[in-house]
Amino acid sequence: MNTLKNILVLFLIVVLASCSKNISKMDASESSMISKKVDSLMGLMTLSEKIGQMNQYNGFWDVTGPVPNEGDAANKYDHLKKGLVGSMLNVLGADEVRKVQKIAVEETRLGIPLIIGFDVIHGYKTLSPIPLAESASWDLEAIENSAKMAAEEAASAGINWTFAPMVDISRDARWGRVMEGAGEDPYLGSLIAKARVKGFQGNNLSLPYTIAACAKHFAGYGFAEAGRDYNTVDVSISTLYNTILPPFKAAVEADVKTFMNAFNILNGVPATGNRFLQRDILKGAWGFKGFVVSDWGSMGEMVTHGYAKDGEEAAKMAVNTGSDMDMESYLYVKYLEKLVNDGLVDIALIDDTVKRILTVKFELGLFDDPYKYCNSAREKEITGNKKIHEAVLDVAKKSIVLLKNENQLLPLKKEGLNIVVMGPLGNDKHSPLGSWRGEAADNSAVSLMEGLQLYTGNSITHQMGVKLTEGLPNFTTETIINTTDRTGITEAVAAAKNKDVVIMVLGEHGFQSGEGRSRTSLSLPGLQQELLEAVYKVNKNIVLVLMNGRPLAIEWADKNIPAIVEAWHLGTESGNAIAQVLYGDYNPSGKLTMTFPRNIGQVPIYYNHKNTGRPTYPGGNSVFWSHYIDESNDPLYEFGYGLSYTTFKYENLKLSTNSLTENNDIEVSFTLTNTGNFEGKEVAQLYIRDLYASLARPVKELKGFEMLSLKPNESKQVSFRIDRKMLEFYSANEKWETEPGDFKVFIGGSSKTVLEGYFECK
Ligand code: BGC
Question: Taking the CA of residue 277 as centre, how many other CA atoms within 13 Å lie in the half-sphere pointing to its CB?
Answer without folding.
Answer: 29
